[in-house]
Amino acid sequence: xxxxxxxxxxxxxxxxxxxxxxxxxxxxxxxxxxxxxxxxxxxxxxxxxxxxxxxxxxxxxxxxxxxxxxxxxxxxxxxxxxxxxxxxxxxxxxxxxxxxxxxxxxxxxxxxxxxxxxxxxxxxxxxx
Length: 128
Description:
It is a single chain. With about 130 residues, the protein is of the alpha/beta class. The chain has one domain (about 15-120): Oxidized Rhodanese, domain 1 (3-Layer(aba) Sandwich), CATH 3.40.250. About 40% of the residues lie in helices and about 15% in strands. The chain has helices spanning about 5-15, 20-30, 40-45, 60-65, 90-105, 115-120, and strands at about 15-20, 35-40, 55, 85, 110. It has a five-stranded parallel sheet with strand order 1-5-4-2-3. α5 (about 90-105) links the parallel β4 and β5.
């Protein structure tokens, strides 16, 4: 039987850890080992993103996270031993991305539950 998007998301969520908005906001204030990654498309990132976020679109995640790739992301590719928190609009693409980073050897990866939609609904800061 073919898998649906819901199947992929359910499987991903069973393999990853999620963080809520209040916890992430606290981590942004108190942790210096945190890498916050927005996996949305470029236009969405430009329209608004979380403070301190770097932009790594999901479609380029594996390449940009791989230190052996000639055009890797200078921050993400060196973050295997740091706390990495991923987000998208609703937390689905970032959940799939969290699984990918774990498979690539990243040690402490989290997904922002509900994504930027919940972050915004909770009136947390957004950079525009």
